[in-house]
Amino acid sequence: MGEKKNETIFILESKFNEFSEEFSTLLQDYKRKSKRLDRIIKLSDKQQFDMIKLNEQLDQYKNHLENLVDEKTKELQDLNKNLEQRVQEEVEANRKKDQHLHDQAKFAQLGELIGNIAHQWRQPLNAISTTVSGMQAMRELGMYDQKEEDEGLKIIFERTQYLSGVINNFRDFIEQKHEKENILLQNLIISTVDIVKSSLENEIIELQLDLQEEDIELLSIPSELSNVLITLIKNSKDALAKVDNKKKKIIKITLTKKDNNINIIVFDNANGIDKDILPKIFDPYFTTKHQSQGTGLGLYLAKKIVEEKLNGTLEVLETSSKGTQFIISIKQV
What's the chain's average pLDDT? Predict the structure, then answer.
């Protein structure tokens, strides 16, 4: 009986010891896990704190960026406003400059036109003066002859009609409308040449016209095209003034049409244009003449008119020792 009891006690002690060991193991495991959990909790709290701090920094950075964007937007708006104003000021300055250049060239051309009037009037006025002097001398000498006087009066009448026609031609040229209209190019070239032909004759320059027989019509601004032609003719006349008088001086105007392309070529047989000068001939204020003889604006404005108002091109087609050709090219629409 006693042995059985002892055996039972031994078994109970063994079980207790096993239980104690298991409990001790579990307790240690709990402590380890509890420490890990504490560390995790602490780490989570730190991360949450860092996250809150990061969010605050992000909010500050966002506000800074928004302020910066607002500031730069305002700067851009101010810059754009100033830029628009500066562009308008530059456009206005360029407009005034172009108007000034145009006025200079216009006054120079008016001087040329007045000179042409003087050339065209000189011979008729001399004829009238000679006729009147002859008639007066005949009366004073008592050699009055009705037939000769009638002939003299006829000469005076014809010359005054011619002078009146010259004035009308110049008035029509000056008062031409600056609007597009259908024009017959042959007629425009002939009427333009009539304005300057006396000054060419005075310089012993032969003017040749090679105009197609078939009528060529063009929707254009006649006054502007006439101005360009006069500029080119004057340029040729000035070039020929430097040529030896022994040489036959020629200015030839040729009108051609192929498909819808119209070309007006102004040729002179002067000495051509030096290759060093050629790239500059259309520059404003560039001239090879003395300031008293030219403004250096003629070819510049001629090119500007052809390109901007006549929707064409103006270029030097060829230049050599045999002469120079300027070509106006315009598309027929």
Answer: 78
